[in-house]
Amino acid sequence: MERESLQEPIPHGNALLPLMVHVFETGMRLRKRVVCHWHEELEFLVVTDGEADFHIDAQHYRVTTGDVLFVNSNRLHSALAVENTPFRFFAVVFHSSLLDNSVNDSVQQKYITPVLNGQVHFPAHLHPQAKWEQTVLACLRQIKEVYEEHQPAYELTIS
């Protein structure tokens, strides 16, 4: 199967806000929960219930409630649920342009550009125990909440 055929056709936001939050709730009888695909956008997944085997490129991760996965741009990924268990999660999918700073400041140089270029690898699987991991999880939950509420200036809050 050609890689191009696995590109996800769903738009993730638009030019004004290149971000989308997806909530996934699937039945327990369905084993394949996320079909193998890739997209240009970055993605954080937060497991809200259950357990699954997630694959990112050639790596395998067993995820459970509370875990966070990071899928960098253009990575093949899929998920198979553990048999007869629920599996629910939400995904924050966004284009790297959301992180781009018009000024090439130290944040851009030290943190954003190296991750986007693959020079620095953000961990793919977080079990939010360390303070920084808990902060990432809290930010993702807040992004989801703000995105769903669509209050005035929600784009600014997310950014």
Short description:
With 159 residues, this protein is α+β, with helices and mostly antiparallel strands. The protein has three helices and eight strands; from the N terminus they run βββββββαβαα.
Descriptive keywords:
159 residues, alpha+beta, 8-stranded antiparallel sheet
Molecular structure report:
The chain is of the alpha+beta class. It contains 3 helices and 8 strands; from the N terminus they run βββββββαβαα. 22% of the residues lie in helices and 34% in strands. Strands 1, 2, 3, 4, 5, 6, 7 and 8 form an 8-stranded antiparallel sheet that branches. It has helices spanning 106-116, 131-149, 154-158, and strands at 19-26, 32-37, 42-56, 59-64, 68-71, 77-81, 87-94, 125-126. The radius of gyration is 16 Å and the shape is globular. The chain starts with 18 loop residues before the first strand and ends with a helix.
Specify the number of helices.
Answer: 3
- How many E-type strands? 8
The rounded Rg comes to: 16 Å
Mean pLDDT: 87
Helix/strand-derived category reads alpha+beta
Helix content: 10-25%
Stretches where pLDDT is under 50 for at least 5 consecutive residues are: none
Largest sheet descriptor: 8 strands, antiparallel
Share in β-strands: 25-35%
Distance N to C terminus: 37 Å
* Secondary-structure element order, N to C: EEEEEEEHEHH
Shape: globular
